[in-house]
Each structure stands twice: as structure tokens, then as C-alpha cells.
Amino acid sequence: MVGSKRGIDMYSIILLEYDMRIKAGRVEDDDHQLIDGVSALSDLQGTWNRAFRKRIHGDCGAVDLVLARIHDAVLANVEVVISEVQNSFNLCLRCSIGGYKKQIRLFDGAIGESRGLKRSVVVVVDGSTMDLKFEVASEPSCSAEHRRSFKARTHGLDTREIKTEFGLISVKVAWSTLLST
């Protein structure tokens, strides 16, 4: 068969397509197919600004997706840079957004030298608060917690710094709007 692998005829408002694989080798053909498929979401009269969970079953297991439809949403591009590192430490960075009980884990790992963390994008209701919680520890039994809050807005840049005994944590949040219809 020549051409595309599949055809899609869309009757829904939102279409999510998945092609998730478990890395097993050096090339993509060696990887195991976890999930390959689509989900259609069309109920626009349902609940807004509330998360819901969808489980997708595949040949090698299942994946839980947490989805939310956010009205008046803005994007928060979160960039964290660790500098002036004195000693190695563990860092766990979590995010809470207004109206949601569960926290979003943005980073959890060891820091041994100055570096930037992978940039994260979080969707937030315009005008609500996004809280970042930094748990800094040299060992599991001894940790310090630092929180920084940001008020969501349509455009702009917010910066904060956290000085710890291990180093300097700089946080930059760039706000931007989503396209609206």
C-alpha cells in the first residue's frame, strides 16, 4: 500500500493520537509498541477547569492520561537553572495550579553541578495562582522546602531566586496565551 499508514475521519472536536513505545534497542524498529491509537473527545458541554483520567490499554500494558479542559487558559513556560552549586543534592520540583488537588511533578533527581533543568510547560487558568514547590535535600531524611508563587497572566515574564546552602536556584516563568476560537 502506498501513502499514509492510516486515514482519519474526524467527527469530534478534539482528537488525540498516540504512538507510545518502550525503548528496547538502538533503532526505532527494536522498540516495543505500547499504545497506537486515537481518542476522540467531543462533549463540550461537560465540566471545564477540572481534570479527568482516561486509561488507554495497549499490547504491552496500560497508560493513564490525565486530561483537563481549561477555559481562559494561559501557558506557563517554566525554566529552572541551578548555579553556584556547592555540594551535590537532590531536588524535587512540583507544581500546583489553582483548582486542582494533585501536584504535577516537573523534576525529581540529583544535582551535582550547575545546569539548567528541562523546560516545562504548564497550562493555568488566567488570573489564578501557580505554586512551585522545591524540595532540596542532601539525604532522604533531611530536606528543606521552598515555595514560590506566580499569578497567571496573558503575557510577560516573572523571575524568582532561591538561595540554598547547596546553590542558587533561578526560576523564570514566561507567560503566553493559547489560541482561542
From TrEMBL:
Q: Which Pfam families match?
A: DUF6598
Going by the entry's taxonomy, the superkingdom of the source organism is recorded as: Eukaryota
Specify the DUF6598 domain's residue ranges.
2-173
Per its UniProt record, what InterPro entries does this chain match? DUF6598
Q: Which PANTHER family match?
A: DUF6598 DOMAIN-CONTAINING PROTEIN, OS07G0486400 PROTEIN
Name of the protein described by the UniProt record: DUF6598 domain-containing protein
Per the UniProt record, the source organism is: Triticum aestivum
